[in-house]
Every structure is written in structure tokens, then in C-alpha cells.
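C-alpha cells please, single chain.
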Amino acid sequence: MANYTTTNPEWAVQGNSAVMSGIEGIKDTTVGNINPYLKVKRRTSLTEDEIVEGVIKGDRTVLSRAITLIESNSPKHFAKAQRVLQRLLPRTGNALRVGITGVPGAGKSTIIEAFGNMLCDDGHKVAVLAVDPTSSITRGSILGDKTRMGTLSQRSEAFIRPSPAGGTLGGVARKSRETMLMCEAAGYDVILIETVGVGQSETIVRSMVDFFMLVVLTGAGDDLQGIKKGIMELADAIVINKADGDNLVKAKVARGEYERMIEFIRPATEGWPTHAYLCSAVEKTGLPELWKVIQVFKELTTASGVFKRRRDNQLLDWMKSMIDEHLHNLFFDDAVIMGRMPEVKSAVLNGTISPTQGVAELVKIFDIKRASERQVDLFSNN
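Here you go.
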């Protein structure tokens, strides 16, 4: 074994050995040779075949890396991600998709953990897509929802993926649809999507899931306040959480209030009456009943054809959102637009032209044919 020696920098206090110089005789300082007894394994990128095979086998490590590829904004990753998704599409569509939303503090993560554990005990494989709020200043996200699901995250039957919202309206990450399909291809038969929970803008999740659940608390306001919340018009079930202990009586009263509110709102799903339900994620009460409600919902909507029509509409909504994103990128990535943009912005700020006139100026010089020629084929092997 080689001997380590220590030296002091000029600024160090005399007599204190603060810095290790390393192993004597080592000239090559490349990674892996700094300490000959330390074996460094470099992380290599997976091929398309390795990703597809790993996802199909249900390898959670490969699935995580596949989702990272999907979420990447790098142009060099986009084509590869789309080819992987295309190959996995035949294995998707067999899971039950449940969206869970509600105001911050309503206990969404706690419900999901208790609900997910119950489903795993019943033999299901559960994937949780937890979308955390993204800072509008730093663009960062804490991704802390997974820490509230300590027991569920340790189960082999469950997969939890926290993702930043990225500023997307509705609190759903831009690539959540693709992530959901990846989980379905990996064999997860129940997909739970926990959204940011920011109130009235929390609606885009409706276009992604089969069953939409709104988690509320007691004391949410008067009847008018409840009715005017647009999110209630999209809910297939209203779940009053924390219905336990001293709060149980208040929760029962709240349930009656929400039932009266629902009478004035058109059902979110054709042929399905929305109702309010009591639940306690801590005491795990009301969860089996809630799962039964979701199963009955699927049976009825499948028989009536509503379930398939909703899935079809989801695909069309997905395509539309991708068109919007593609056109947005074509416009703002165009060299002519980028060159002209500073001048137009300056004119708008100086009051020389109005914002509307600025838009008209930019649209006028935009050539979509020119911009399209710079785009690479989405499924190109290059």
C-alpha cells in the first residue's frame, strides 16, 4: 500500500496538516488513477434497444433514464426519445389513469401513498407522477413530493417519478403524457398523476386522465365560492380528506355542502353523477370505497363508449399541444426572428409601436418554409 503525505498551503496555520498531496509516484491524474485502489465506473448512455428492452422488462432504473430522455429539452435527445416512444406505443393504453388535484395542503401526497399501498397489496402495479411547482424566478423545483411517500417508494410494485411543472399551465409537466405512456409500457396498470394544485388553473390534467379526483378540505368557503370554482366542473369525484378525529363532524357537514353545490354543476363525465366522499389518509378510511367508485366508473363508461371517446380526445389534444409547441419553437428559433426581435422589443418599450403592431411586424417577416428547413426529422437516425 502506498503512503499518503500531507502538506500545508501558505495560508494554513502552522502545525496543522490540512491538505493531502495524494499518493507519491502517481503521475497520471486522470479519473481512476488518482487512487489506484478506487474503481470508478463511468455512466454510459443506453442505446434505443437497451431502453426499449429495459422498459418492457419493468426495470425501474432504465425506466427512470428513459423518462429523463423524454424530459430533456436538448434537440439531440428529442429524436431518440420519440423513436423510443414510437416503439413502445403498442404496449401502452392498458392502465387506468387517475388525476389527483387540490389546493396545497389538502393532503394529496398522503392520500396517494395510502391509496398506492392499498393497490399494491391488492396486486396492482402503481406508477405515481408527482408534478412539483417550479420557481418562476430560478426555474428550479424542489421535487419534494416523493419524500411524503416513504413507504410507497420502497415497494417494488410502485414507481414514483417527481417532475418539475416547468411553468406549464395546469401544473402538468410538458412531457407528462409521454412519461405516462412509458410507465404503461413498463407494465404499471394504475397511473396516479398528482398535480401542483394551484386552484382554478388546474384544468389541463383533465385532458390526460380517465378519472379526475378533486381533494378538498373542510371550511372551503360558502356555496357560491364552491360553485364558481371551475375546477369542480371537471371533477368525477370530490374527496374530503382528513375526515378523522375531531374533524370528522366538520367533514360530514362539508360533504353535505358539496353535494348541494354539485346539484348546480353539470356532470364532468356523460352518464356519471359526481358525488362527494369522505376519506382519511392517516387512518386509511374511505380508500377501499373510493377504489370501488373508480372501478364502477370504468365499467359504466366503457359500456357506454364514453371511456373510449375520452381516450380518443386525449390523443387529439396531445397532438394539438404538440403542434402548438412545434410552431412556437419554429417561430422563436428562426434566425431572422431572433435578429429582429431586439429592435421590435425596444420599439414596444419606447412606445413607438404597440405590442399588437410588434406582433404584426414579426409575423410579417416570418417565413415558415425557411424555418422548417432548419428542423431535423423527428425520427431521423442521425
